Amino acid sequence: MLKFVFLQWPEGVANDLKCGHGQVLVLAAHDFLSHDLFDVMIIDTQLANAFINTAMQTSLETSLGAVARMNQFVNELPQEAEGKIAPSTSWPERGRGEINIQNLTASYSIDPAASSVLKDISLYIKAGEKVAICGRTGSGKSSIISAIFGLLRTTSGTITIDDLDTTSVRASTLRAGIMLLTQDPYFVNGSIRQNLLLHRAPEIADDTIVSALERTGLSVKLGLHKGESSVSDILDNLLVPEDMLTKGEMQLFAITCAILSTSKILILDEPTSGLDAASDQIVQRVLWEH
């Protein structure tokens, strides 16, 4: 099938190619991928403008549709209620972090008539305690996590962290004080150091970072044992997770972030799902030691 490309020439080039008045230069090729020779044709400007106007109109309609959807999202979607209390940046305090859920009933929908995903749930976790919540798919394990992060609409009951009702705390503060690790770790386009310190102040010492990587068995994988480059240079190398880490190692990297994190509460949602036996053992060991 014949394909056409309309060229927008720099100023003066069209004159050099001797395009006549009211005409434009068009390249045509039967197959671009096989690098066939291009045929040069001169066609009428009016026909070219018809093609261009159609393409522009289609693009404009698509863009206007996107703007309309964004406007609807911003102006019509109900916003979550924002708490008024802003605890210190160190909240929950060191040595604390108890979670107390009492008679909680909550729903994902803002509609009061919607069915509840959690019904009359009570759970108390002491500071420093490690608790595993088990159940079949759909039993509400992830919903409890969402409720702690303030992502559900609470119809009755309370969730308190260190005796502070989470609904009264600003959402940004609440979510900054808790670290969540899922089975699909999150990475940013940045260096090894930047990814490790997403939840920690950037001035943390290199020795501390290396120590955390050694605990999860990643120091060798990331080249920190070679001695060919300084530790600082290696940590500042670009991290490309898909090329540098296996799925199990990505999860171990996330566990390393947890070790370095300032968060007093660590929540894991199926952290060993899909891991090999060796990686699973490391995750289990680090969690019980941390």
TrEMBL record:
The keyword Transcription regulation does not apply. Coiled coil: none annotated. Residues 118-273 form the ABC transporter domain. GO terms for molecular function: ATP binding; ATP hydrolysis activity; ATPase-coupled transmembrane transporter activity. Transmembrane segments: none annotated. Keywords: ATP-binding, Nucleotide-binding. GO terms for cellular component: membrane. The keyword Nucleotide-binding applies. This is ABC transporter domain-containing protein.
